[in-house]
Amino acid sequence: MMMMMMMKVMMMVTVMVSEGSIIEQTCKETPDFNLCVSLLNSDPRGSSADTSGLALILIDKIKVLTTKTLNEINGLYKKRPELKRALDECSRRYKTILNADVPEAIEAISKGVPKFGEDGVIDAGVEASVCEGGFKGRSPLTSLTKSMQKISNVTRAIVRMLL
């Protein structure tokens, strides 16, 4: 009886270790291990997800960051009216991420066509870079755009694992 209980405990520990390690194993193949692990561990789906699931979690993180950035842009219109032109450009760019890139990436990964998912993820990082460049060095969105670029790079690395 005791031996049977010990075997059950050992099997449970093995399962728990292997579930937790998929995130670490996957994140080792990305350009920012710590960011990757942090983002995936912050989502309860991460511990039981396969590689496609991990990519979808990160795409969700891109969507959340996009929404946060759009809210910040909307607030800046009142505080920094002199930046209207650059803010307009950023608003267009981030709406493209939200309305085109994220849905494209989700659909592609969900349907098993990761190449198109990669395109959407890459474009999210490009859109953020173009937004940042529009401020000519005095961007109030730098931390958000840098975060988008980093998340996009990590997500792209995971999507490439599906190719």
UniProtKB/TrEMBL annotation:
Residues 18-158 form the Pectinesterase inhibitor domain. InterPro entries: C/VIF1 (IPR034087), Invertase/methylesterase_inhib (IPR035513), PCW_Enzyme_Inhibitor (IPR052421), Pectinesterase_inhib_dom (IPR006501). One of its GO terms (molecular function) is enzyme inhibitor activity. The keyword Signal applies. Keywords: Disulfide bond, Signal. SUPFAM superfamilies: Plant invertase/pectin methylesterase inhibitor (SSF101148). The keyword Disulfide bond applies. Residues 1-20 form the signal peptide. Belongs to the PMEI family. This is Pectinesterase inhibitor domain-containing protein. It comes from Arabidopsis arenosa (Sand rock-cress). The lineage of its organism: Eukaryota, Viridiplantae, Streptophyta, Embryophyta, Tracheophyta.
